[in-house]
Amino acid sequence: MSSLLRSALAGGVLRLTLADAATRNSLSEAMMGALRAALAEAAGDRSVRVIVLAAEGPAFSSGHNLKEITAHRADPDKGAAYFATLFDSCAALMLGIVNHPKPVIAEVAGLASAAGCQLVASCDLAIAAEGARFCTPGVNIGLFCSTPMVALSRNVASKHAMEMLLTGDVYGAEDAQRFGLVNRVVPAADLTATVNELAAKIASKSMVTLRTGKQAFYRQRDLPLAEAYAYTARVMTENLLMRDAEEGIAAFIGKRDPQWSDEP
């Protein structure tokens, strides 16, 4: 595990903590690489049932490392190849979260800016402390937050997303909840306990069921209505034939706790 990222596993919940306070937990090449590696490892680890992304210091993440970006302007192509690779890497990280078989929860205590806001939006759930703040401020430095816009526009109503993108303003946690960027806002002192309680509740479910449902959620969302119903009908049929669905229904009828196999 990279020194930029701390890892702790307890009760089936893997907590990955961004720990590069010196750069306000920027999504540098090294940080994105560490996150992608940790997520890939967790995907195949049966002891991991839920993942929490948290951060040390006053910023959840400040977004891309502008010093790294600026350094590559001296490249013969003025940085074009590096920039393309950087954004490809970032897209792979965000897709890795959305396509991950385990639920991913963002625990946001500080500022989530630009690609840091994109990281929050890419997670399946997000819980914020009352003092957390969110922004996509690229427009303020002549660089529109086009890649953060992808995740933002899929989680936030269009008018709210455009307001954030066009103004570059910083929004508080309550606005982020109202916009739909985070699920709930809690006092800072209660943040970790709230996230742990939510993660534990989800971790108690059948993993094969959660994996099936998470995949279906993101796939159906972009389908036309009739195609979405046809697709999810197939998914539910396949789901009903799984061992955990049979066990869960039997346990419900028998008024007992289910014993999950976590297998198809």
TrEMBL record:
InterPro entries: ClpP/crotonase-like_dom_sf, Enoyl-CoA_hydra/iso, Enoyl-CoA_hydra_C, Mitochondrial_ECH-domain. Keywords: Fatty acid metabolism, Lipid metabolism, Transit peptide. This is Enoyl-CoA hydratase domain-containing protein 3, mitochondrial. May play a role in fatty acid biosynthesis and insulin sensitivity. Belongs to the enoyl-CoA hydratase/isomerase family. One of its GO terms (biological process) is fatty acid metabolic process. CDD domains: crotonase-like (cd06558). GO terms for molecular function: hydro-lyase activity. SUPFAM superfamilies: ClpP/crotonase (SSF52096).
